[in-house]
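S.,

Sequence below, as promised.
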Amino acid sequence: MRRRLWVNLVSFLVLGASGAIIYAQQQPAKPATPKDDPVRALPSDSASKSVEIGDFYLRRRKYKAALSRFQDALKTDPHYAPAFRELGRVYEKMGQWKKSLDAYHKYLDELPSAKDAREAKDIHKAIARMQREIVAEGDSSHGAK
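The prediction came back faster than expected:
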């Protein structure tokens, strides 16, 4: 350990900062273990990153890409509530009312407390909107016959 530190210091002094950076990049990286990095061991960290990327795609109206990221988040952590919320939003944008409604209900089920579920007013409004869409869709298909 001391020898490697000494070599890095000498490299820095001889090669300058850019040379030391190149030297450091050439060194093989130690694989991180959950013991070394407890945050890396948490599945929700990866799931939250997937949701963050999915939100990026959703804002740019790239619904298939967003859908894929939200589904990836749920593969990583099947109980990650924000992934269900965003999945409901993307299905709503895609006009898939029943899937959207299911995702919103799962979101409410996965929230940590009943109080959180009651306070999710935006989701309750979205659920009411999806139910109206499903009823309206059913009425229009009966009128067409």
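DSSP finds seven helices and no strands in the chain.

Coffee later?
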